[in-house]
Amino acid sequence: MCCVRPAGSPSGAPRGGEVSALPLYRETVRPEWIDYNGHMSEAFYVLVFGFATDRMMIETGLHSEYRERTGCSLYTVESHIRYLRDVAEGDRLLVRTRVLGADAKRTRIAHELYVLGPDAQNDAERSDDTRSSDSGSTDVPGPGAEPVATTELLALHVDQQAGRTTPFPDQVRERLVALTEAAPAWAGRSIAEVPAAR
């Protein structure tokens, strides 16, 4: 997904009862997402994070009506994913999204993926609308919960007709700036260098 669909607390994990500035995205791990190792394949972490980016775009005014009207969208140009723990079929997932920064044409976004505990409401009992957004639910990770995966993204606002970046509308940029939170401790990392064999 090189071109993503239009798309806290400094410690990282949302604490019990903590409200995220953006709606929380929820999903359930589907059987077809399981790989030959018996857990969710890496491609589907990207898919779930992409859906969370879509949700962020809706909340900041970069929704389908905006894209159709302006021909502009949000393209991911860089990402860094950390896979921290296996995720199994049927696990209930929650993604917390935060904006880490925005300027005239760019935004930096972080997603944290959690597996909800056994007391979480089953996604199958939710309607499609409530399953994919926060809707005031208390269905959040407990105190001290750690993410099972994280991703950090750099995205550009692109005029698709012109094929180049273009400034965000003032209202969108102001919304992104207003949503900006402190970066979690894990953000900004790169892949460690592996020395050549001697």
Description:
The protein has helices at 42-59, 64-70, 128-131, 170-179; strands at residues 25-28, 72-83, 92-102, 106-115, 149-159, 164-165. The chain has 198 residues and is an alpha+beta fold. The termini are far apart.
Task: Furnish the topology, listing elements before pairings.
Layout: E1 25-28, H1 42-59, H2 64-70, E2 72-83, E3 92-102, E4 106-115, H3 128-131, E5 149-159, E6 164-165, H4 170-179
Antiparallel strand pairs: 1-3, 2-5, 3-4, 4-5, 5-6
Task: Please provide a brief summary of the model.
By secondary structure, the protein is an alpha+beta fold. Helices cover 20% and strands 25% of the residues.
Largest sheet: 6 strands, antiparallel
**Overall pLDDT score:** 84
Which percent band covers the strand fraction?
25-35%
Runs with pLDDT <50, length 5+? 1-19, 119-137
Structural class: alpha+beta
The Cα radius of gyration reads 17 Å
Order of SSEs: EHHEEEHEEH
Estimate percent helicity.
10-25%
* SS elements, strand count: 6
Query: Which outline best applies?
Result: globular
Give descriptors for this structure.
198 residues, alpha+beta, six-stranded antiparallel β-sheet, 4 helices, 6 strands, globular
